[in-house]
């Protein structure tokens, strides 16, 4: 670790770390104990506030905390301080720092400035203790992720949702658009995805929770990691409301058969000087450049140091807390490439010990090089060293739609040749495969996944342009029908491969973001899904629904193991650009044939001579089959996919 300009004599690497979980407060029947980890502080005090009542409270007393073992400061009050507010203050070199809710706050008030002692059982909705009884563990390859932001999904009038942009939006059943098509939770049930990935929903800084004005932010600016964001609650000032409503949302999603994925952003904080990390143990939680300035692998002004024992412990405990207290089923790690491999492995081990089948994936990159040797980082290239953690497959994404740094450059979808190998790389789930020519793959010259379920298969996400905008930017002036055909082709590539499929909310109905590339703080008029899109693109929606059913029904898309994929999945040489064809043999001896044709003309291809059922053809999809077909030389319609299946026993024709 690099030398830091710390005033205290204790070197940062020598800071003691407690073994037991750090509980910021323990509410006993007749006492309350507080804890704060600040090994190098000269002194620590706690401020207590009167009980929270309808936003009114005041400072009640300030008390010195006592220095205990392993860097912990403690204070015990001989009363149960239910719903009492508190902040900590540390003193270094004779200077008292600003008040902080601490890094392990469980409940906070408006804008996350003050913490509260809350009896978490008071926040449980009715039936919460049986919430997870019907939450079966399924193999990762059966997971289908849907990435959404509360405002995108529910704030537009056309959604017909009462709790616009709130947690409770996902508790409303039977909502409809103007034409009577389902929206919200009912739309998700119709679609058939399995995992709802919520954009950051821990307490973040950029939205003023006290304002009634519509404000928008993705929320990648963490404040309090272990508390739900207040602006998505109906009352951000009442510390219990955001917790209770978040749980109500999870409960409704679970009842509807979904699992819930939390987007976690441990790689940086909103700011440094005012962060809870810096106000408790200055300089400990952040990496520095050799010149002493803050490292900035996040591109957001700082990067955290997961390799430091207490930061690692903090991340593990935070993830476990969301699982135990909020019943979270999966985690998406923002800029996972900033974290070290050991931390990610420890998180996986700790999670598996408390709840099986939790989906963990992340961005296997950073904004710029983090201040830790490359071989230690949980980058995409190192993901095979991280057990059962997946990374986003940008090879497939950009092979389909074009590079992230130039919106006008198209690729396979709009008929640009030369991207076939990048797509094949993604179709096999980023595992080594002799029929993928790595020399021609866009980013990776080496396969990086150990199993196909270590790759997230996608064509767009909240970052960059959504699919509709990208198609318009790369093929201007095409008809709505043509964009729809290309969107179907794109999603077919995403779902008919071996990686874990992922959809950005609204791509299934061709929502747009008015061409905005980085819409992180754009207004609702840019970010919200207008649900008339569902009516306009009902045909695409129906196609995606069937696509998901096909993927879930057939074993051919769930090979998972690299050896099995190499044995069972083979590409048919096409000798033409923009035409990719492959066969997948399933366990029962059936044969799946998939052809992706982005040419504007029909193409012919030879497939094994067997009797097939047609599942997808010329922009139509049906899990029950559209028609039958004899193998041999067959025609594939322009700008579309052909998916046919031949069972091991002959079809009755
Ligand atoms: Ca907030």
Pick out its properties:
653 residues, alpha/beta, Immunoglobulin-like, eight-stranded parallel β-barrel, 14 helices, 26 strands, globular, binds calcium ion
How would you characterize the overall build of this protein?
Helices cover 21% and strands 21% of the residues. With 653 residues, it is α/β, with parallel strands linked by helices. Among the domains are: 12-99, Immunoglobulin-like, CATH 2.60.40.10; 571-646, Immunoglobulin-like, CATH 2.60.40.1180. The strands form five sheets. It has an eight-stranded parallel barrel with strand order 10-11-14-15-16-17-18-19. Strand 20 (569-571) and strand 21 form a beta hairpin. Helix 5 packs parallel to helix 6 (341-354) and helix 10 (480-495) packs parallel to helix 13 (538-553). Calcium ion (CA) binds next to strand 12.
What topology does this entry show?
Elements: E1 25-27, E2 32-37, E3 43-51, E4 59-64, E5 66-67, E6 72-77, E7 84-92, E8 95-96, E9 115-116, E10 145-148, H1 150-154, H2 184-191, E11 195-198, E12 202-204, E13 222-228, H3 239-255, E14 259-264, H4 276-280, H5 309-326, E15 330-333, H6 341-354, E16 359-362, E17 390-392, H7 394-401, H8 420-427, E18 455-457, H9 467-474, H10 480-495, E19 500-504, H11 524-527, H12 532-536, H13 538-553, H14 562-568, E20 569-571, E21 579-585, E22 591-597, E23 603-617, E24 620-621, E25 627-636, E26 640-646
Parallel strand pairs: 10-11, 10-19, 11-14, 14-15, 15-16, 16-17, 17-18, 18-19
Antiparallel strand pairs: 1-2, 2-6, 3-4, 3-7, 5-6, 7-8, 7-9, 12-13, 20-21, 21-22, 22-26, 23-24, 23-25, 23-26
Helix pairs in contact: 5-6, 7-8, 10-13
Bound molecules: calcium ion.
